[in-house]
Amino acid sequence: MKVLLYNGGMKLVGKSGVGRAVSHQAKALERAGIAYTFHPEEDYDIVHINTVFPDSLWMSLKARMKGKRVIYYGHSTREDFRNSFPGSNLAAGLFQWWIRLCYGSGDMVITPTDYSKKLLQSYPVSVNMVALSNGVNLKEFQRSLEGRKRFRALYGIPDSKKVILGVGHYIERKGILDFAAMAERFGQYEFWWFGYTPSMLVTKRVKKILNKKIPNLHFPGYVESGKLADAYSGSDLFFFPTQEETEGIVMLEAMAMRIPVLVRDIPVYEGWLEHGKNVYKGKDRDSFAALLPEILEGNLPDLTREAYQTVQENSIDRIGERLTEIYGSLLGGENRLPAAE
Q1: Percent with pLDDT over 70 in the chain
Q2: 167 strand-pairing partners
Q3: Secondary structure of 8-52 in the HEC alphabet?
């Protein structure tokens, strides 16, 4: 058995969560001992498609015509397309139609959470569908004192300063405006947001924040995973005020790095992230402002051990095992997928 990881469009999304998901899939297949390729001209049995560009749909149709099995990864929904780029709200209905066409061309859709699965089924996307985490590489994302020192030395941050970390595109949906508002409110802390979005895709409100001189708010841009792991190690809180997600790989990474997590209380996290149990949740700026200093100053319980136990369920090794079961079902011609644990 051989899997094609189709990487069309990676120049556009390689620095996003989708690009990270493709990397995770490759590592999961390696751990599971499953052969894979990035080259469509090679022979393969199953193709993974992670993007919804026109070339991705064409790849799906070609593979089906050759009798290959097609797995579409449902990273995108109408809901997380909204509030992302200029004009995205106006185009959300068209985007829903398009992803229905793309996802419906495959044999099945894998989407990261039960929440995103329910959204896609409601459109409807009527092909076989299963929820499976994007996973996290627990061997790569390990908190270290050396990483903390490298991060703080690189950016000249005193060890005595508390650092709040954010990661994501420069888009409103990711909560960047709330992140900046907390920086303005809490001048005693350092706020660092890692990520990048081309200027033409950034809304006016976000551009205003990027250009505003807030002394303790920093936008160093996109960094590779090794330097991002250092940033996690060197931070005291991961603040993820995202308004909509299908999962949120960076949050899984933060949990794996054993740093406290403050996340927005949104439907995708219901049932597996619990306020006061493995993370802290806020609904708006006032609740973020109430929780943030209490976490940083140690006035609330440390939940990092519980968060790590939660994220272990989404390790790449376990994702590889689950994919092996799914492949066996697809290639065996069964109509029903094995139940998730």
Answers
A1: 97
A2: 194
A3: CCHHHHCCCHHHHHHHHHHHHHHHHCCEEECCCCCCCCEEEECCC
Cα dihedral value 314, 318, 319, 325, nearest 10: -140
pLDDT in tens, 191-213: 999 999 999 999 999 999 999 99
User: What count of other Cβ atoms lies within 10 Å of the Cβ of residue 321?
Assistant: 14
- Is residue 124 reached through a cis peptide bond, with omega within 30 degrees of 0 on the bond before it? yes
Q: Enter the pTM of the model.
A: 0.94
| CB contact burial 279-289 (16+ within 10 A = b; e otherwise) | bbbbeeeeebe
Handedness of CA 182, 141, 114, 109 (dihedral sign): positive
Task: Choose the weakest-confidence range: 5-9, 131-135, 160-164, 199-203.
Answer: 5-9
Count Cβ atoms within 10 A of the Cβ of residue 10 and give its class: 0-12 exposed, 13-18 middle, 19 or more buried.
Answer: middle
Instruction: Kindly state the helix (H) or strand (E) to which residue 238 belongs, with its residue range.
Output: strand 237-240
Beta bridge partners of 164: 191, 237
Cβ neighbours of residue 156 under 8 Å, at least 6 residues apart? none
Query: 333: phi > 0 → left, psi -120 to 50 → alpha, else beta; which?
Result: left
Helices H, strands E: what count in the chain? 14, 12
| Whole-number Å distance between alpha carbons of 294 and 261 | 12
